[in-house]
Amino acid sequence: MRIDPTELGAERIYRLMTGIVVPRPIAWVTSLSRAGVLNLAPFSAFTFVSQKPPMLAISVGRKGADYKDTAHNILDTEEYVIHIADTPLMSAVHDSSVEHPPEISEVEHLGLETLPCERIKVSRLAAAPVAMECVFRQCLEFGDARSRLIVGEVVMFHLRDGLVNDGKVETRALDPIARIGGPRYARLGEIVTLNTVFQTPKSKD
């Protein structure tokens, strides 16, 4: 079949693309409003864009005519935390996607325990196996809906004990969840290890 995107509205294209670009890692983001409300929301348009310094990107859309609270908070305070959630947190991740008014803290609403960060004021989630303290670096807007691609630098990594072996994260132990089309999520299936291929070193270390 063939589909001409110029014949589709934004919502139908979104459903199509989120069913094609799968599985997607989930950035579970805490951010702080100017009023001091700790916001929590998941974003599956998420990747890393630099290793030195470490930088991550999330795409934040709108809720109605306005941008989501996360975008406002990051641009206002320039600090936030990106978490990687595991299987036991799947329901909490999904429930945190409910759109509450900005004065409602999803963290408090879901009864999630937090811990202070070391280099930023935003709190991190105690239960998440990975938390990355981020500071805002750049924002680019794309498309008719002006989705905001927000890039931040990781200034501190927090990883659960036992996840890192010889400098590498044990993916099976991390047990990350991923997003697929609709209100559906995926877990790791079979992990296939192939032969190492030659690549030019990216740095001296």
Question: What is shown here, in short?
Answer:
Belongs to the flavoredoxin family. The chain is 17% helix and 37% strand.
Low-pLDDT ranges: none
Q: Ends: how far apart?
A: 48 Å
Sheet with the most strands? 7 strands, antiparallel
Class per helix and strand makeup: alpha+beta
Rg, Cα atoms, Å: 18 Å
Shape by Cα distribution: globular
Number of helices: 5
The side-by-side strand order for the widest beta sheet comes to 3-2-8-11-12-5-4
> Helix coverage percent of residues?
10-25%
Number of E-state strands: 16
User: SSE string, helix = H, strand = E?
Assistant: HEEEEEEEHEHHEEEEEEHEE
Strand content: 35-45%
Report the mean per-residue pLDDT as an integer.
Answer: 94
Describe what you observe in this structure:
With 205 residues, the chain is of the alpha+beta class. The chain has 5 helices and 16 strands. A hairpin with a 2-residue loop joins strand 13 and strand 14. The termini are far apart. The model has no long low-confidence stretch (mean pLDDT 94). Keywords: Flavoprotein, FMN.
